[in-house]
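Weekly structure sync, notes
Attendees: PL (lead), two postdocs, one rotation student
Agenda item 3: pending single-chain targets
PL asked that the sequence for the first pending target be pasted directly into the notes so everyone works from the same version. It is reproduced below exactly as submitted, 346 residues in total.
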Amino acid sequence: MMTGRERINTAMRLEQPDRVPVWCQLSLEHIIRNAFPEGKYPQTIEEYVRAECEMTLRYGFDGVLLYLPGMREGTRVDKFLEEWIHSIPQGDSSHDFSKADPEKWEQNIPEYTAADFYSSQLAREIIGTDYHIGGWTPDAFSRAVQWFPTMEEAMMAMVMDPPRFKALISFFEEQSIAWAKAQIQFGKVESIHISSPYAGSSFISLETYKELVLPQLKRLADALREEPAFAYVHTCGFLSDRLELIASSGVDGIECLDPAPLGDVELGEAKERVGDKIFLKGNLDSVHTLLYGSDEDVDRAIMHCLEVGMPGGGYIISTACSVAPAVPPERIKRISELTRRYGNYN
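Predicted structure, written out during the meeting:
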């Protein structure tokens, strides 16, 4: 029998493990609600990482995605986590795109050391060697979008001044690459989740994707290919029209694959179109199915993902995006229960 670590790594290589790996991304609020008494925020990074690892075991996952992979020993995280949950990351209100000149900005990339990734090392110490540990980085396009005070201003900038917006993306490329590489080198994470939430067709057209997202994604994928880790893109919502483009970027896999109505991806079709090029992760609707659906709806959705996703390997069953805060733990455990029963290859 494979370990969870071996199971995920095998699927990420587009090979067939002993069974379909189970690995959902938990939302921060779901972790706070279910790992701490009365939803009280953990005070230290040690408390938080321990909770992430314990929930991985409780839910029967084969791996853990660390929200805070780069934290030093003893770091206070309570206020940080509370602000993260209750706010949407966005740029400083003083940012004035009309006066910005990203080509002249000076990079300020830290000299990372092992001490900066104590939280990743702690996760391995707690969870042991049988589980896959993943980290994450925003792509440069997402960093550029979040530089603006509002989403509307970011979208207008793309249309009104594409060269300046491209320069903004270029500025953030080195930061995304350096942060991802440091997690691998010092934190020893085994995969990098590339957060690219604004790259679906709900936000930008296919042509804009080709012009602004794909080039920087290729450069990030190329840089990470030199490292002993996998890289996969996390894009929410509607992206059926750009599956082949994502597969051509050089990443190892893609996550979310939101089904209708959250998105427009049919897992069987995605498997047929790009399943021989990149691994697929997701497709379970965390809101309409796991939160609001009946028990029968939940079982039916899990079985559908196994039926169409597992043939030949290269599939990780997961919620399409992160597990919604109010999803009952029993519903998440059900994914592991049915996969252990029906997701075996041998």
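Discussion points:
- The longest strand covers residues 132-138.
- DSSP finds 13 helices and seven strands in the chain.
Action: rotation student to compare against the earlier draft before next sync.
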